Amino acid sequence: MSTLEIRDLHVSVETKEGPKPILRGVDLTIKSGETHAIMGPNGSGKSTLASAIAGHPKYDVTAGTVTLDGEDVLAMSVDERARAGLFLAMQYPVEVPGVSVANFLRTAKTAISGEAPALRTWGKEVKGAMANLRIDSSFAERSVNEGFSGGEKKRHEILQMELFKPHFAILDETDSGLDVDALRVVSEGVNRAKETTDVGVLLITHYTRILRYIKPDFVHVFVDGKIAEEGGPELAERLEDEGYDRYVGTGATMSA
Amino acid sequence: MTATTDRTTDHSRAVADGAHTHGPGQGVVPAGSRAERVTSFDLADIPVPSGREEEWRFSPVARLQPLFADTLASDGVAVSVEAAAEVKVETVARDDVRLGKAGKPGDRTAVTAWNAVAEATVVTIPAEAVASDVTSVRVDGVSSVATAQHLLVHAERHSEAVVVIDHRGDALLNQTVEILVEDGAQLTVVSVQDWADGAVHAAAHRSSIGRDARLKHVVVTFGGDVVRITPDTTFTATGGEVEMVGLYFADADQHQEHRLFVDHAVPSCRSRVTYKGALQGSGAHTVWVGDVLIQAEAEDTDTYELNRNLVLTDGARADSVPNLEIETGEIAGAGHASATGRFDDEQLFYLMARGIPEVDARRLVVRGFFAELIDEIGVPSVEERLLASIEAELEKSMSVITGVPAAAE
């Protein structure tokens, strides 16, 4: 049983005009096996939260703490965070020309587990996971994300989540840009990971439709860099009906 | 922090007669056609450049000055050849009739190299012979006296061979490499510039490709202070093919310049040019100029040239100028592409977010950048050495990142 704890997190992003505060005091606790959905309008800071936890250099933590089972995540380098068990499924996965998917997966798995995966079982595992996500086996020899469609990139992200078996996975708008079939395939992958590894999931989304496939235990509404409201799955249903107007329309920021 | 400039042009449907000269990044069209540039065996025809000339404007002319002299020594390098059993090696006088058949010198260092040389090394692959092994030509720098050296690689009709020219040590060398590929022959020539620091090397490669003959021309440049190579290729009969591959890796204060010219003078020939370079450190400078001329008679020509540069650190500069002149619309295809990008912090973040340490992530990206090209070389011993050299180069930049001196690993 692991715990990812975010306390009073303040984050700024570098801009030409100087640092611009985005997160203004985020509190969030996620335990193994739990699924938390973070919902909110564009520009509310949802993706900043994801990037800051993963350690993207563009984001500067100005106050607060992030701990994983008491360990200071913010003191870790990006790769150390991943090896500690954090995984970020990126909104815009990056192309790495000349590096094959097979080589990339093996290199990352080796780094995360601290030893090279057993050749025979690893090959089977990759093949099986790719088949489950309807990724053609020819992708193993293609360069990472190069020439992938939007849906292929997202399936490749979830493929990694299934293979690397993180303690906590942050899915940054993994559902955006997916058609219904792709959304179902991706969601099935996340649910498989939940069933087999007890992973804690932080699901960041603008829309409610992915929540029909991946059931959240908790829903947090993100507005203006902090959590404006929290609740169970019923909160998502209310958002589906009402949208975010009640949070942004009046300018009212409800305290959590 | 991604700054990539991409230029891709497809000229396969060009119809303009002689009107289309294309040189992105230049701002001006080069003076006249490449076909009009003076070529000559006579010193008087090609004077010492000032550095402002089109073909010298990127070059550190002061460093190359000693090689512009009318006379040059011959003892600054030691040449030795380890030949495949089928291959013949001779040292001949400068007036040997076989020399000077692959075209005329096209710039000052080329013409001084031709005139200053006392004797030449001739490597002959006899007609119909298939070389059973790689032929290695070693050019070892033994002193830094300005020296001229001449090599002819002559693949007679229907022969097949791989010849690797390997440059090491410290030298001040002005070199001519003539490559004759006669009808139906298949030749691979690899020139590796693995010089020690301080070396200055100008080389004119002049290739002539006969009917249905094929040349793979590979240039690999890592070492030396200044390396300037001008591979000229001309087709003498239909059905010829040239594949030109280049890899370079420039460190602080290194100048690596590759200026290619492919002259499609006859119909139905094919050329493919792919050069890739990485740069790191302050004052690292690479220059790639790719001139392709499709003459009016050269119908059914198929050509494509590509240059990519990966800038790993601040303070490095990559110049890339593809030029395509098309004098006939009746071609199969013609295009070029050039792109220079910075090392991509987003790629680094993506790989590190998968647990891969920074040093390994950088290595993956740079290896990935060169991977495709290394596969194309087709000479295993060179490929292995190349991978090792790339590793060694990377160690230099890694030591900056990790704070551990390169030698410690």
What's a concise summary of this model?
Chain A is of the alpha/beta class. Chain A contains eight helices and twelve strands. A six-stranded mixed beta sheet of chain A has the order 6-9-10-3-11-12, sandwiched between helices. In chain A, strands 2-1-4-5 form a four-stranded antiparallel beta sheet.
Give the arrangement of secondary structure elements.
The complex is a heterodimer of chains A (256) and B (409).
Chain A: E1 3-15, E2 18-31, E3 35-39, H1 46-54, E4 59-68, E5 71-72, H2 78-84, E6 86-89, E7 96-100, H3 101-113, H4 119-132, E8 143-144, H5 150-164, E9 168-172, H6 180-197, E10 200-205, E11 218-223, E12 226-231, H7 233-242, H8 245-248
Parallel strand pairs in A: 3-10, 3-11, 6-9, 9-10
Antiparallel strand pairs in A: 1-2, 1-4, 4-5, 7-8, 11-12
Helix pairs in contact in A: 4-5, 5-6
Chain B: E1 4-10, E2 20-22, H1 61-64, E3 77-82, E4 88-93, H2 108-116, E5 119-125, E6 135-141, E7 146-155, E8 160-169, E9 172-181, E10 186-193, E11 200-209, E12 214-221, E13 226-235, E14 241-250, E15 255-264, E16 270-279, E17 285-294, E18 302-311, E19 317-326, E20 333-342, H3 345-352, H4 358-377, H5 380-402
Helix pairs in contact in B: 3-4, 4-5
Q: How would you characterize this protein structure?
A:
The complex is a heterodimer of chains A (256) and B (409). By secondary structure, chain A is α/β, with parallel strands linked by helices. A 6-stranded mixed β-sheet of chain A has the order 6-9-10-3-11-12, sandwiched between helices. A 4-stranded antiparallel β-sheet of chain A has the order 2-1-4-5. Chain A has a two-stranded antiparallel ribbon with strand order 7-8. Mean pLDDT of chain A is 93; it is low at 251-256. Chain A has a single domain, classed as Rossmann fold. Chain A is 35% helix and 30% strand. In chain A, helix 4 crosses helix 5 and helix 5 packs parallel to helix 6. With 409 residues, chain B is an alpha/beta fold. Chain B folds into 2 domains: 14-342, no CATH class; 344-409, no CATH class. Helices cover 16% and strands 42% of the residues of chain B. In chain B, strands 1-20-18-16-14-12-10-8-6-3 form a 10-stranded mixed β-sheet, with helices on one face. Chain B has a 10-stranded mixed β-sheet with strand order 2-19-17-15-13-11-9-7-5-4, with helices on one face. In chain B, helix 3 packs across helix 4 (358-377) and helix 4 runs antiparallel to helix 5. The longest helix of chain B has 23 residues, at 380-402. Residues 12-30 of chain B have low confidence and may be disordered. Chain A binds chain B through residues 54-57, 77-79, 81-83, 87-88, 90, 93-99, 103-104, 107-108, 111-112, 143, 160, 164, and chain B through 344-347, 349-358, 360-361, 364-365, 367-372.
